[in-house]
Amino acid sequence: MSDRTIRAVWLYPELMNVYADRGNVIALRARCADHGIECEVERLELGGDLPDDADLVLIGGGQDREQRRVAPDLARHAARLHEWHDDDVAFLAVCGGFQLFGDGYRTARGEELPGVGLFDVTTVAPPPGAERCVGDVLAETHLDGIGEVVGFENHAGRTYLGPGVRPFAHVQYGWGNNGVDGTEGAVAGSALGTYLHGSLLPRNPRVTDWLIDAALRHRYGAGASIEDSPPEDAYALGAREAAATAARERGRANAD
Ligand code: GLN
What we know:
Layout: E1 4-11, H1 22-34, E2 37-44, E3 56-59, H2 64-76, H3 78-86, E4 90-94, H4 96-100, E5 104-106, E6 112-114, E7 121-124, E8 133-141, E9 148-155, E10 158-161, E11 169-173, E12 183-184, E13 186-188, E14 191-194, H5 200-203, H6 205-220, H7 234-250
Parallel strand pairs: 1-2, 1-3, 3-4, 4-14, 5-7
Antiparallel strand pairs: 5-6, 7-10, 8-9, 8-11, 11-12, 13-14
């Protein structure tokens, strides 16, 4: 019987869900169950209302077409999302979702899509015809106890970090935020933004645990954490290994 519960809000699951990002929600629930923690998930679609409270917020990726529809709706929730962030609610924002949680995204057509501004990052799409950032990624995180992460990226937008965030990881293979500075994703407090699909969490249970720990602290106070961390299961290990091998063999080696 689980005696602890975390409440997650899943933003725009119908529109922001490319490359199996919904797997993050499935993996979150499964990993919570491994830890004996109940995970309630509430979905929010266009026009919906945020619940009064949450411990964790998730948003996946989407192409520019979906981002155009989501950006104005998300802007309605910006004040509440900032309050939650200030209150140390955990966030996971992937790819197009990461871009919309930054300061804004300028598309290849030159439209300025507003961002929530949780991450001090800006994203600009290169002109049509420029190379997309596509491929398997192997990166070394800067978060304690997580080490290497694997994933798959596919984005046109180039994201540049401001002084208010630190990168999530340093890319060994892959493009990362912009293909130039070696950074991947961003971390601001308990908020994690990344370009890694894959999905991310099934292949990287330590990242899942980082989010669950943050959600537990939000719900139960600073001392709360996962009690015993079960090892990564065989599927997760196998998936990590396969993804790491693909990145080493086919990925774009980072020069720095
Ligand atoms: N539309 C964005 C880009 O191409 C995000 C793509 C995605 O979420 N996969 O940069």
